Give the backbone structure.
Amino acid sequence: MSPIFYILAALTIGGGLAAVLLKNLVHAALATTVAFAGLALLYLELDAQFAGFAQILVYIGAVAILIVFAILLTRGSDVPKDGVFSRTWAVGLVIAAAVFAVLAWAVLESLRAVPQQAAVPAVTVDDIGNALVGRYVLPLEIVGLLLTAATIGAVIVAMHEKERPKS
Amino acid sequence: MTTPLAGYLLVAALLFAIGLAGALVRRNAILVLIGIELMLNAANLNLIAFWRFGPHPELLTGMMFAIFSIAVAAAEAAVGLGLVISIYRHTNSTDLDKMNRMKG
Amino acid sequence: MQESAAFTPQFAAASITGILWLIPAAPIVASGAIALLKQPRRKPAAALAIGALSISLLLSLIAFCHVVAGWARGAVVREFVNFTWFRFGSSNVDLGWVLDPLAAVMLVMVSFVGLLIFIYSVGYMAHDENFTRFFCFMSLFAGAMLGVVISNSLLLLFMCWEIVGLTSYLLIGFWYQKPSAAAAAKKAFVTTRVGDIFFLLGIVWLFSQTGTLLFYDYGVGSLEGLALVNLASQHAAFGLTAAGAIALLIFAGAVGKSGQLPLHVWLPDAMEGPTPVSALIHAATMVAAGVFLVARVYPLMSIGAAPHGATAALTVVTWVGASTAVFAALIAVAQNDIKRILAYSTISQLGYMMAGLGLGGVAVGIFHLITHAFFKALLFLGAGSVIHGCHDEQDIRRMGGLRADMPLTFLTYAIGMLALCGFPLVFSGFWSKDGILEAAKHWDISKGPFYLLVFGALLTAFYMTRQVCYVFFGHWRGHDAAHESPKVMTLPLIVLAFFAMALGFIGTPAWPWFHAFLENRAVAFDIHAFAEPGLGLLMLTSSVVVFIGLGLGWWLYGDQSPKAEAPDVLEKSAPWLWTPLRNRLYVDEFYDATVIAFYTWWARVADWLDAQVWGGIVALVAWLFSLWARFNRFLDVHWVDGGFDKTCEELSSGGGLLSRVEGGRVQNYLRILAAAIVVLAAILLWSSRP
């Protein structure tokens, strides 16, 4: 395991922790962005350059901004008086810990049998493009449809309601 | 930690657990969505790691899956945040503890 | 030589025996037809009744001639037709009818006297509003009585016997609005019922011993050969043979029906019915049914007797008859109701008939029955005429001098009265009563009956004279003037008077045609029969006795005309004798104190049992049921309902508990999801370990 990996892992995990623990919502959103960035670098480390840049473009460029917009629109910058954690936060913590335990155990148990190869795959954007319109054309189109529907839906959901006509 | 794959997978698992904890513990609805995004990202990391260290990387299966996951996650974030805004307009709050109108 | 008819369809059709059943059937059918008429239709009712009985009379005469023809040829005529009514198990119950001399004479007598009385009733009941009902019942009675006469089966006889009893009840209580009439009808029915129970026991015993209830059945009937010998050889209780015991049980039925001594109490009260009823039923025919029954089962009564001796059964019959004769005659002396005197006279004469059967056999008793039927019917119809003429007055102290006002009635009544007393030679009663006295004289067992019967003859003459003197002699003591009755009533009187005199001549010792006919002997006119030793003395004795009675009566009551309310001559002179006789020797009071009192007590006990015990049981069962119902209700309410309600409550609260799972809070849902995934994953991983 290279040290790069450890740094990047720490960055990501730290960002995630911060996102979850910080009281200020805007700070939490920014911490999320840090986590996203860490993940993009991890992708790059994994020789998935396209995925990494797509991550930066989409997550940091769109999703994070979206989250900030939402925080601003819902006056989330004020710290609530009752505290940021739910009254029964311990239960949630326990469950999350259980999930981690199960996943970790699954990983450690099963990886003894999996052969590893370290060969670097040669992936070009050309290959990705061909794959998108070749083998994965159907998911592509469906995702297009999904995005359209999601956009329209989000607009409708978040739209101001018209004044009801007095009748 | 014997293999790099295991390392990445553990990182992904930890990130997933953190995201889940956030979704389960925090009061604000937006933070629940943040937690969900973290979970999705952890899953993407898993996919890329398996693509990198698994058989037949030339098929681009993992990468494609991850890309499509990113796209869908974006759409889902949009819709989800739109819902939160809409709920905020109706109840003037984003506190999930207070939202129990679906109580049976 | 025995010649009995074989029942083949051709023979039956050719012989009167085959259609003998029409004789009782015609009046019964007429009765049914009359029952369907409305009350105001008098002429059709009377026409139906008289017409039907005329048919019966015609057929009876044909049957009689047929039997006489057979007898004249020297055959023993006994034709019968039997048929099976039903079977049960291996035994049959048969019915049938028989035509023999006894049945033949009875048929003619019943239908002829009945017809005359029917004609008389048209006049007597003319003012009564229930005219049609009267003829309906009378017709039914006539049919049933004829059924009794021709019956060849003890069961059929019993059934017709009961119908006769029923019609007697209906007719005694004809004017049912009168409480005394209703009570008298009930008394008649109940008293004869007592006799009938013993009769039924006799029937059952006979059937169980012989297996048949037919009288004559080609040798296997209950009154023939083998059966009779068997019965005579079996021994029952009290030293009697089975035959004797059965005979006595059957005689008990006759005691009730014919008003013999212990069960006579209903006959005087039966005078509450209309006079034609009294004439037909309680003088001529129904009461004679008992005598006829004894005559019919005479073989049963007399089996085992030595010649001129007697069986135990016949001895009992004789003594009962003789004592009844005297007992009733004594009471008749002190009665003041014209019909009641005649009622007691009937009881007395029935006693004579029974004694005659016991002492001298069937012919002697039945001869007196036939003659009595005519002159007693005559006397009753005459009394009815008197009552009618005196505007429904029945007390003889309020009559008198009717000799001038109702001459025809007086003449016929006098003839009847002399026949009853037994006035010598010209009147039938003399010959028939003498027959009985002669048999009594020759009876070996005791001379008691003879003296009793002679004393009875004296009393008979005495009280009849008294009655005639009160009614027809002296001055009129009544209210309005009396008048003679219409021709429709006097004509039957004349006819009956003729027979009251003429019938005697077929039974004299010189020419005992009647006795020979009944006993299947030949007969010839033999004036020297009068020379038989003792017969002349007997005839003289009985004549003297009659004259003494007549003279005594005339001397005491003669042409005097006591005031209506004055006490009787005898009452003034011998009140110690008069009062008990006037009160009918207290028999009714005795029964009241014993039988009736017991019965009333028993009825009260039964009522108490019914109300308290059976009623109590019913109430207890009802209470138990209500208890059970209450218990069920308790179960239902608390357990079933309650259980159900509880379950629903638990479900509801459980549901309430469960619904807390849906807190409405999204994060909780998510938590549960995650936990479930953890569990599932753990299971999956655990199970797929190598």
Summary: The first helix of chain C runs from residue 9 to 14. Residues 1-13 of chain C have pLDDT under 50 and may be disordered. The first strand of chain C starts at residue 2 and ends at 3. The CA atoms of residues 671 and 677 of chain C lie 10 Å apart.
